[in-house]
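User: Some background: our group keeps a shared notebook of sequences we're curious about, and every so often someone picks one and asks for a predicted structure to add to the entry. Today it's my turn. The entry only has the sequence so far, pasted here. Could you supply the structure so I can complete it?
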Amino acid sequence: MRQNHEIDYKIYGEEMQYVEVELDPNETAIAEPGAFMMMDDGIQMETLFGDGSQQQNTSILGKLFNAGKRVLVGESLFMTAFTNASHGKKTVSFASPYPGKIIPIDLSIFQNKIICQKDAFLCAAKGVSIGIEFQRKLGTGLFGGEGFIMEKLEGDGMAFMHACGHVVQRHLMAGDMLKIDTGCIVGFTSGIDYDIQFVGGIKNTLFGGEGLFFATLRGPGTVWIQTLPISRLAGRILQYGTYKRKEEGSILGGIGNVLDGDGW
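Assistant: Of course. Here's the predicted structure to add to the notebook entry:
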């Protein structure tokens, strides 16, 4: 029997997705501040200190400690709970913060725990605990891109992660190893061994343009991979916004801008 609230859901959209969560009377969903999109009349919204999970220490010090851990992973001290206070089924919807995909995960299928990048969590059934996962290996902490601290989702309910670009799910058997760009990791199950490997080769290091290190993920377990890390997208937008084209101001440059759709 599940300890977390049981919720039904439906995901809408292609590139800018949102998830509609259906709540029975007295069921609750929790979400990051700013993820809310819309809700039916009859749903009550409440701001919680921490994630409101049953795993949390109920003492004041315990609540401060658990909420403080969320600050280390770049999340807010507070979360928002949406409870169906009416007699019939009601829905509440949450939207992804940038173009990409929403990933639904039934934690009970994955041994009640998923480890993910620090900003991957979107929403979940009440009872799911959102905490921190320390990387025990020095190399992963120093060169893994995510630092020593990642996020962990624990419980036996539904949780939703969001990723940038397209999402690939890979199942690794025992002994299988996958080399991946550190920024492309969305999350993985607790049985995955996460480490860092040096790319190697002076030409690869200086001119490869892929960074100095790979993430290595060794099975058994499941890995979720995004095609476009948000840091890479932000870097390209910044580069485009600050780049001055050499031909600007010339006749040919003006024609080129027109052909590009930039106008004169």
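Suggested note for the entry: The first strand starts at residue 8 and ends at 12. Residues 8-240 form a domain with the Double-stranded beta-helix fold (CATH 3.60.160.10).
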